[in-house]
Amino acid sequence: MKRTRLQQEAQQLGFPASLFGYTPDVAAYWWEPGLPYVADPGATSALTCIAPESPEYIFAGDEMAPRFPLGTPVILAPAPSDHPLQIGRVYVRIPEQGEPEVGRLAWLHDTELELTQDNSPAVLRWPLGVGTVYAVTHYVDCPGPRAFPGPRTTAPAQPYLLQLHANQMGPRYPAGARYLVYLVPPSRWTQSRGVHAFELRSGRQLLARLIGPSEEEDELYFLLDATAQLGSVALADVAQLWKLGAADYLPEEPEADHLALVEQVLNESRGMLRVS
Fold first, then answer.
1. In the prediction, which pLDDT does 157 show?
2. What does the pLDDT read at residue 114?
3. I need a surface site. Which of 1, 53, 186, 214 has the fewest CB within 10 A?
4. List of the chain residues with pLDDT < 70
5. Total structural domains in the chain?
6. Could you tell me the CA-to-CA distances from 56 to 51, 52, 80, 89, 243 in Å, in that order?
């Protein structure tokens, strides 16, 4: 098959033939989907907004190419200690001594973070509490000859991995499972349906089945599968909304007696739950 110009360019630069299933002929191969530019004031991001003290970081190698090749300047934001890091996002660790390290979060362990690099076989392990961890939040510019035609902020929503830690949506969505999740833009919150992860402005997180808006469209109604409990949350209290996609990992099936217990609980109405 004849190679396109972009495929030839990627090969000449030593970049992978494909990245997360994307090939060089599509924008999501070259740009981190959903990551906005500082120059795009109307862009929204799944990451922390720029703060005045946000530092700038310049990639010192091609380990994270093609989306972050050598010389790419980005904006960083400190990863808050009271907010969980998200698998699939790109982070930079700046130690008290030594050179910064950058990688894509692959796993959260009890005592360390495990990260991979898009264009390198290296696996990084960052001990918790050692150095400062920053999230990459915005592009500043992109060097090199690989400008992709068209608007830079129209790439598809970036899928991230979400690990479930509770059984409120069991047995179909059990604790320990991992799912691809996609950020839902606020303009679609009242139209979206299905299982979602809610990030509330209070810092609380909730996994529930979104069943629709209130008549005034100022609240979202949801259902907890494991208890058949209905609930509602005000739109004004929602910071971000993520829709669950395909499963990345499923634990072993629960025992039959546990399934029977869940079925019994599902048959009991728990009334309306109000969260904020």
1. 46
2. 94
3. 1
4. 1-3, 37-54, 80-83, 141-161, 253-276
5. 2
6. 11, 11, 17, 17, 31
Which residue, of 109, 139, 169, is where some domain finishes? 139
The reply to whether 9 and 132 lie within a common domain is yes
Whether residue 112 sits in one domain with residue 208 = no
In a domain, 154, yes or no: no
pLDDT digits (tens, 9 = 90+) for 108-134: 888 999 999 999 999 999 998 888 899
Same domain? 168 vs 128: no
> Domain holding 69: CATH number?
2.10.109
Name the residue with tokens 């629960």.
254
- Joined tokens for residue 169: 């949506």
Does 213 reside within a domain? yes
Residues 112 and 55 grouped into a single domain: yes
CA pair distance 24, 203, nearest whole angstrom? 38
Among the listed residues 228, 76, 224, 192, the one whose alpha carbon sits nearest the alpha carbon of residue 139: 76
Residue 148: inside a domain, yes or no? no
CB-CB contact of 221 with 238 (8 Å): no
Q: What is the DSSP string of 27-81?
A: HHHHS-TT--BTT-TT---SSPPP-TT--EEE--SSTBTTTB-TT-EEEEEE--T
Which run of H or E residues covers position 108?
Answer: strand 101-108
Instruction: State the DSSP code for 187.
Output: G
Rounded distance, CA 197 to CA 183, Å? 9
Q: Is the dihedral of CA 231, 233, 234, 240 positive or negative?
A: negative
Do residues 200 and 206 make contact, with C-beta atoms less than 8 angstroms apart? yes
By the 8 A CB rule, do 231 and 224 touch?
A: yes
Domain that holds residue 71: 5-139
Look at residue 199 and tell me if it is in a domain.
yes
Taking the model in full, what pTM does it have? Answer: 0.51
